[in-house]
Amino acid sequence: MRLSDDEQRMLNGEMGKGVQQAMEILVKMGELFGAKRFLPVKNAHIDAAAYTTIWDAGTEFIEYLLNNGARVAVPTTINPVSRDIVDWKKFGTTEGFAEKSRRLEDAYLKLGVIPTWTCAPYQCTNVPGFGEVVSWSESNAVNYVNSVIGARAERLPDLVDVCCAVVGRVPEYGLYIEENRAGDMLFELEGFDEEWFQDSVDYAVLGYLVGEIVVNKVPVIKGLPEHTMPDDLKSLSAAAASGGAVALFHVVGITPEAPDLETAFQGKKDYKTVKITPKEMQEMEERLNTAKKDKVDLVLVGCPHLSFPEVREIAELIEGKQVSENTKFWIQTNQTVYDLAQRAGVSKTIEASGAVILKDTCLMEMECDGVWEGQHFVTNSGKAAQYAPSIAGVNITMADMKGCVEAALTGKKPEGGRRKC
Ligand code: F3S
User: Fold this and answer.
1) Cα 120 to ligand 1 centre (Å)
2) If you placed Cys at 243, which of 29, 211, 248, 332 could pair as Cys (CB 3.0 to 4.6 Å)?
């Protein structure tokens, strides 16, 4: 790689051993991907926050950087950790595990991160501009920031994301290169009436389906309604990055790099077209629905973390009602959204129902140890439908937000809220 004078000084160790270590890793990674140079970044988002992701070895690496003079060089937000920092005891986290998480959180705070502890930094605190080069990890966030905002990002591996934040640079490869951002495959939606795409769960199912087919290429989706909202695209981003490894998608007429088909494909004509009808959506949803029993053990929403409008929607649906004593209702968000919910009085409404709001964390990042094995989860998240069975050994029923609340109130698989084709 060709290095600037400053980058060479970092590599030589003139800015400390921590920066030198980060630079050595990034040069090796850049060479592996054929990068010719580094790009300066204006902000970073780190995925490697949960103790259950990087364990003791990862914690020691962060402490090594810290103890050798490294600090983040640009404003840097960070993913959920492995415990609700305030209410960890309420969720069964043990003292020893909380201590491991606390040690990692402390290291990151000393490194200089902004303690957002969220996988949806784009809905509060860290909102890059169109075309801005950023070093982000966390698959849903990379997909969102590339696709919905039009910033420039790639799926950086855990800990490489920390190195980028420390040197304020990223190797120029993959989706940092303009021509790699062209669409590869067209998905045409057909036969959907106005009942479809009224809830983000439809976007989750679509995202999962598209991700499975396109894997790690760039899909272009045509036919989504004009009323598509950022929270809908958040669901699509997370599911497409889980069903496949999508890091950038275009929605014609909605996302910024796709005002029309020609622009989305950068003039390419030789792309494959896949038709998606209600039948394919129904079949996809049936494959995600692995639960056989009626009784629901846990309803899980907020993967990725919920925005304030989503938290308010739950409050409106649940006001004056009680969660079934046979089930649990877990609502995942970050402290920033929780503060807004408190100010607006909606967290009180939700908590009065018996539902609980997790901050700073998520079930998939918490201490697990088989506690959920064989249980039945209802969720509106395509990413949770992918990860919860493999991480926690559970079975899934997909539902829209109304169906999730219904399941929490009755303790049973929801009847309402989902259409049949
Ligand atoms: Fe976020 Fe955890 Fe889901 S980090 S995207 S809530 S698996």
Assistant:
1) 9
2) 211
